[in-house]
Amino acid sequence: MNKQDILNFWKLLIKAKRILLINHIRMDPDAFGSLAGFYRILKNIGGYTLKATNDELPPESFGFLNSSHIIEPDLDIKKFQPDLIISFDASSIDQLGNQYRQYEKTFANTEFVVIDHHISNPGFGKLNLINTDASSTCEIVWHIIETLGLEQYVDRQIATLLTTGLLTDTNIYYNANTTGDTLRTGAKLLDNDADFRLPMFEFYKKKEFYKSKLWGEVLRNLEREQYMTSPQPSPSKREGDTYIYWSIITSEMFAATETSDVDVSGLINEFLANLEGMEVCFLLYPLPDGKIKASLRSNSFDVSELCQSFWGGGHKLAAGFSVKYDTEKEMEELERVKEQILKKIQQG
Questions:
Q1: Which residues does the chain have with pLDDT short of 50?
Q2: For 3-205, which CATH superfamily applies?
Q3: Which of 7, 158, 242, 338 has a Cα at 20 to 30 A from 125?
């Protein structure tokens, strides 16, 4: 992504009257914050008919951002007749879900802009604003706002939405994807009256009762094995060794704790990724649509490349994928995927 790409995007915005915004399925705070933040920028500019869609409504935990109502899961995109479609934080076109598949012809015949930061993104738009050095799509959106001189349209709500994506995709500026540009973006959003404490509390400090019970089950079933390419393994198998950590969540665990897959959020970043000697960690759990979801984090191992072999993707140190499975053989299938992941990690 360069300045000319952003200026070309501005030309499309000038011509457009009916704009559709979409983000990836199972949206995270960065996907939601970038879409909702830019939606509100366009609304403040005025003159547009705007729609936003996804296969699902945002998680209830996003409610404090006061923007969930803009997402219309059942939107008839063909009937809306957009003259510009903007995708946020989706690393591949498949991540746009059924709303894309159902209206594929409309996407193909409409100006289509992709805004994303994932290294695995092939550039599936007609115009691609992709910066793999950016910490988050929210960081890219702020850069676009600055480049186009749209800061006057930024209000407290927009600044807070973009801050949310910045904080969650960097794990509160802890992850290796945090750069000087990231911190400067955070400071500028704070200067624009962002409530940076609110998303910190909602996503990191607040602990819900049932979600805590689920996390307890996950930690109770935590396993590990030594990372075979560790330099100079310690005879004690404790000090100096590096490990692969994992845990598996079953449908029974979700039912017993009165939780669902949305309650998994935060577990891998807050617990598994911080375990002593962690080189790679992953979490496996079933999804309602008959798929197994795998979320992976690493210290240096390229998990994005691993996930791409399962038709997933993400970043070098944080990635994921989902695969269909036989729901009648859930535990067997979870174990099968686990063994496949472990084999690929140990083979390097």
A1: 231-238
A2: inorganic pyrophosphatase (n-terminal core) (3.90.1640.10)
A3: 158
